[in-house]
User: What shape does this take?
Amino acid sequence: MEESKFSEACSLVRRMLELIGEDPGREGLLETPNRVVKSWEEIYSGYAKSCQDYAKVFEHRCEHIVMLRGLDYFSMCEHHMLPFFGTCHVAYIPQNSRVLGVSKLARMLEVYSRRLQLQERLTDQLAFGIQEAINPLGVAVYIDGQHLCMQMRGVRQPHATMRTNKLTGAFLEDPKARSELLSLMALGDK
Assistant: This one.
């Protein structure tokens, strides 16, 4: 972040501290504006990146479901600017001998999650990003999330989780492909 924007952002954080009743000049808060703004650079780093920058495609003949389970993510709710986080599972059926590098799936999730977000949109964006990168026969994305905007304020449901999914192509249209996908998902739960 350029210096003038960094300074302006620090001023905003100091003002926010004042508005919530804090003294930004007290010992424990002197460096807080700098730390907060530096953390924003990481938390919101997805705006400066493109999912396609990470879509490394390899040529490999593969005619079965490729699944990556247990990807952790952290994002920020666009309604309250509070964190939501959880686990993502991704699967696709390659076509035309095109597969994605396994770490690239994690990087694609990272790009989309490091923005102000809705879990529903995050799920869709990741599925469409994979679809755009390799045009597979089908994509499946499952995301579980814990939302602090619901857990620590408002309805205060600390154990509530949200699950979203997006299925495309064969996973949506072919009962056999969907059944195999669900079997693979269940295997990971044992």
Summary: The CA atoms of residues 124 and 166 lie 6 Å apart.
